[in-house]
Design brief:
Blueprint lengths: L1 E2 L2 E2 L2 E11 L4 H4 L5 H5 L2 H4 L13 E10 L2 E5 L22 H7 L9 E3 L12 E4 L2 E4 L5 E5 H13 L8 H8 L1 H6 L1 E5 L3 E3 L4 E5 L8 E7 L2 E7 L6 H4 L11 H17 L4 E3 L6 E8 L2 E9 L1
Parallel strand pairs: 1-17, 5-6, 6-9, 9-10, 14-15
Antiparallel strand pairs: 2-3, 3-4, 4-5, 7-8, 11-12, 12-13, 13-14, 15-16, 16-17
Helix pairs in contact: 5-6
Bound molecules: zinc ion.
Length: 299
């Protein structure tokens, strides 16, 4: 594995947050076949899977993107001190995330743009921190670019108050999105894509959530895909039809995966899964009805 942090004029670094047990293979990808994983065991273990326990290892992280003089944070992880009774591994964390960001030379006030690929609790957490008992924007000078379909869905669920919400999506919205909408700059976007600058754009990838998106980077003939939750696990690159247990619309999610992984294969763009441990990116090419992984890079 080689480290590659610059794509043309765009620099990408990972901001580490969290890694722990969350899902086993059949919990994460309910239609997956253990035999197919065993066939890939030599590279899946120990980073992506433990065959014995069946843990499918994930992490939470952000990607720091420096482009055109701006400091951009893609996804903001789980956050510290968040009450998450429906997902105990995410509850009341006390991680060194802001220190990890500082180690990359970035103070919270330096962040110009926060991009949330979607509004699930593990992608919005550091939008806010607790200040005198209230959740306040962590990145006070940033514009928060948020998907309108997710924002509207969760706003409606919060208003009606009676929709089933076992994983606490609504309470996460209320402590990690509503405060930035109230106290910081926010921009809701919808449609096929949102141009961030000449090199960076958000591309709609609906399915995991209605407003889910991925970030493409194209600069100086080099490319990268910050995939968010388009793929939770690299086995979904081999078989993009594999649904994640939390995909709201599995058919749409599969269509989005095939389309954007196709772009990555065509452009030799490493695919950085939002939850791939250690900021790993897969360089892929088309193979049969899916893709094969040719090599790994990390940021
Ligand atoms: Zn996620």
């Amino acid at each position: 594995m080689t480290d590659k942090t610059v794509f043309g004029d765009v620099e990408v670094n990972r901001v580490d947050e969290w890694r722990d047990r969350l899902f086993t293979r059949p919990e994460l990808l309910p239609d997956s076949d253990r035999l197919e994983w065993e066939a890939q065991k030599d590279w899946l273990e120990p980073v992506f899977w433990s065959a014995e326990s069946e843990d499918a290892w994930l992490c939470a992280q952000s990607f720091l993107v420096r482009s055109g003089g701006r400091t951009i944070l893609v996804d903001t992880g789980i956050g510290n001190g968040k009450p998450r009774p429906g997902v105990p591994p995410f509850a009341d964390l006390d991680t060194g995330y802001l220190g990890n960001l500082a180690a990359l030379g970035v103070r919270p006030e330096d962040v110009d743009l926060v991009v949330c690929t979607h509004l699930h609790p593990d992608h919005i957490g550091w939008n806010t921190t607790l200040e005198n008992g209230e959740w306040r924007p962590t990145f006070p000078n940033a514009t928060h670019l948020l998907p309108k379909p997710d924002f509207e869905l969760l706003s409606e669920m919060a208003k009606s108050g009676d929709a089933p919400d076992p994983l606490g999506f609504v309470s996460a919205f209320l402590d990690s999105v509503a405060p930035v909408a109230e106290h910081a700059k926010t921009q809701l976007w919808e449609g096929e894509e949102q141009v961030i600058d000449d090199a960076v754009r958000l591309v709609a990838a609906p399915g995991h959530s209605p407003g889910a998106a991925a970030v493409t980077i194209s600069s100086g003939g080099e490319h990268a895909l910050l995939a968010g939750d388009l793929v939770h696990h690299p086995m979904q690159i081999l078989d993009p039809g594999q649904r994640n247990v939390l995909d709201a619309d599995p058919a749409a999610a599969a269509e989005s995966r095939i389309r954007l992984l196709g772009w990555a294969a065509e452009h030799s763009a490493p695919v950085f899964g939002g939850h791939f441990p250690g900021g790993r990116g897969a360089r892929i090419s088309a193979a049969g009805s899916g893709f094969r992984i040719d090599s790994w890079t990390n940021v």
